[in-house]
Design a protein that fits this description.
By secondary structure, this protein is α+β, with helices and mostly antiparallel strands. Helix content is 62%, strand content 10%. The protein contains 13 helices and four strands. The longest helix is centred in the middle third of the chain and has 55 residues. It starts with 37 loop residues before the first helix and ends in a 6-residue tail after the last helix.
Length: 375
């Protein structure tokens, strides 16, 4: 009888073919007698069927059997595990520790507890730093929703990290394999371990830098906020005091018959241990603008000077006949006029900012750019 698959002659009652292993359960009995040695019959019979060397047949069938087993294993692996990857040994070398847990479980407890720190630990530097940056914004500027944001991040990273990290790891493995094409497997495995795995010192360094930046921002923000609040509160009080002092100056000026009209006024707080004020009033005198200067001493308003003589002194200067005393006097009066103009512009800006929303950035910029506080 003959094997139905390869044609090898079989002995009587022999069901399994010794060449291809096929089970012949219903072969027809052949009347030919099996003569001679079994091995000679096997080789001779196979040569008659296929003219192929016995060793070649064994090699071919062994290769087919190996490929079949490999495909079956791959198929079973895919069915049992969605993380199957054709370069699994390289992927395992790249991921390193906790590979089986990351491959098997959908939830990562370390990503849940450590958040962005764990991503940095796993060398996901770009994602980790972006996450820290967003977290920093919430800590410094949106603290009202910080707890909700933190809980959302913890749950999100806990459930998504393993999938995301495996996806990134596969991309990295493929990139390395493409870059190192032709390299032996032993070297490739070492490269995977070096470029993948974990890096605790770098993660700690980045996280420590983040904490220092957050600390600096919080302190600076709080100091600026307190300074800003204190400044504008004091400024508002000074504005009210200036308004009262200007009214007193108006009353004093209107009592003088030589001033026809009061046009405007401004006020400045003087530097010193005791809070005092300088008041400048612009008035119309003999159809010319003059500037009248007052100060406060012990909460009393005192008249100091006015620029009514400035016009005549400038005429004398034009004729080159000023005495040293007159020149000194003219410069003093010019100083009153210049102070009024400078203080008036600054106080107008401060009044505008006072009326705006409290603690806005424009106020902060104005405060810290000015060397002198008007009010």
């Amino acid at each position: 009888m003959k094997c139905k698959k390869c044609g090898k002659r079989l002995k009587e009652q022999e069901k399994f073919c010794t060449i291809c292993g096929y089970y012949n359960d219903d072969v027809e009995q052949n009347s030919e007698q099996v003569n001679g040695d079994l091995l000679d019959n096997d080789i001779g019979s196979y040569s008659e069927v296929n003219n192929t060397n016995l060793n070649d047949i064994i090699s071919i069938n062994s290769a087919k059997s190996y490929e079949k087993n490999k495909n079956d294993k791959a198929k079973n692996s895919i069915e049992e595990n969605d993380f199957y990857y054709e370069n699994e040994n390289f992927l395992e070398a790249y991921i390193g520790e906790d590979y089986k847990q990351i491959k098997k479980w959908p939830f990562n407890i370390w990503a849940f507890l450590l958040n962005w720190m764990y991503l940095l630990y796993r060398k996901l530097y770009v994602t980790g730093i972006v996450g820290l940056f967003i977290t920093g914004i919430f800590i410094v500027f949106v603290r009202k929703y910080l707890i909700v944001f933190s809980l959302v991040v913890m749950v999100f990273l806990g459930f998504s990290f393993n999938y995301y990290y495996t996806f990134v790891a596969k991309k990295k493995v493929e990139k390395i394999l493409k870059r190192m094409e032709g390299t032996d497997n032993f070297t490739l495995l070492n490269i995977m371990k070096e470029e993948g795995g974990v890096n605790a010192p770098m993660a700690l360094a980045i996280y420590a830098t983040f904490l220092l930046i957050i600390f600096f921002c919080l302190v600076n923000f709080k100091v600026n906020n307190n300074h800003n609040t204190k400044y504008w509160k004091e400024n508002s009080e000074n504005k009210a005091n200036c308004g009262y002092l200007v009214k007193l100056a108006y009353m004093d000026i209107q009592s003088q018959n030589n001033v026809s009209e009061v046009l405007s006024a401004t006020c400045k707080i003087t530097k010193g241990a005791i809070k005092e004020y300088e008041i400048y009033v612009k008035a119309l005198y003999e159809e010319r603008d003059i500037y009248i200067y007052y100060v406060t001493e012990n909460k009393k308003i005192i008249y100091k000077d006015n620029t009514s003589d400035l016009f005549n002194l400038e005429l004398i200067q034009a004729n080159m006949s000023l005495t040293p005393e007159q020149s000194l006097r003219m410069n003093s009066l010019k100083g009153i006029k210049t102070n009024y103009q400078d203080i008036y512009i600054k106080s107008e800006k401060e009044d505008e900012l006072i009326n705006k929303k409290k603690n806005n950035q424009e106020k902060l910029n104005y405060i810290f750019e000015k060397e002198e506080i008007v009010r």
